[in-house]
Amino acid sequence: MNKIFILLGTNLGDRLQQLSLAKQSLEQQIGLIMQESSIYETAAWGVEDQPSFLNQVILISSPLSALECLNLTQKIELDLGRVRLKKWGERAIDIDLLYFNDEVINHPNLIIPHPFISERRFTLEPLAEIAPTYIHPVYKKNNVSLLNNCKDELPVKKISDDESYRH
């Protein structure tokens, strides 16, 4: 089984419901959710003039390939109302594949590990929470080390490690 770390993000509509619906769809279509981080409220990154996001990292166990997972996550995004108007713009749901096992994948449609992991505090905070010692296969540093060296200063606030916020 493949181990896939996935970042979920949403800043439109009922954000908690969007996270829950995304996790339900991922479990139905891709595989078993083995771990979930707390939910974090984060300032928008890239295009900052937009509502704040809720972000969460999950770990899924799946028999599917990385490209099969990408195709399904993009379908789930569309099913949940994702409209791609501009890069890093607001969205009902965003599903990013962060790590796929310890593989390095350079495909025209998919780069693994996700190319912005080390630059985004909103990714590293929840990732370091559930996988602190996981080693980035390119940088050869664990997630805590990447977080400690991250230059992103946008606020990331844990809003829940309470089970009532989880699916």
UniProtKB/TrEMBL annotation:
Molecular function, one GO term: 2-amino-4-hydroxy-6-hydroxymethyldihydropteridine diphosphokinase activity
Segments forming domain 7,8-dihydro-6-hydroxymethylpterin-pyrophosphokinase: 87-98
Domain of life: Bacteria
Pathway this chain belongs to: Cofactor biosynthesis; tetrahydrofolate biosynthesis; 2-amino-4-hydroxy-6-hydroxymethyl-7,8-dihydropteridine diphosphate from 7,8-dihydroneopterin triphosphate: step 4/4
NCBIfam families membership: folK
Function: Catalyzes the transfer of pyrophosphate from adenosine triphosphate (ATP) to 6-hydroxymethyl-7,8-dihydropterin, an enzymatic step in folate biosynthesis pathway.
Protein's recorded name: 2-amino-4-hydroxy-6-hydroxymethyldihydropteridine pyrophosphokinase
Biological source species: Sphingobacterium detergens
Organismal lineage: Bacteria, Pseudomonadati, Bacteroidota, Sphingobacteriia, Sphingobacteriales
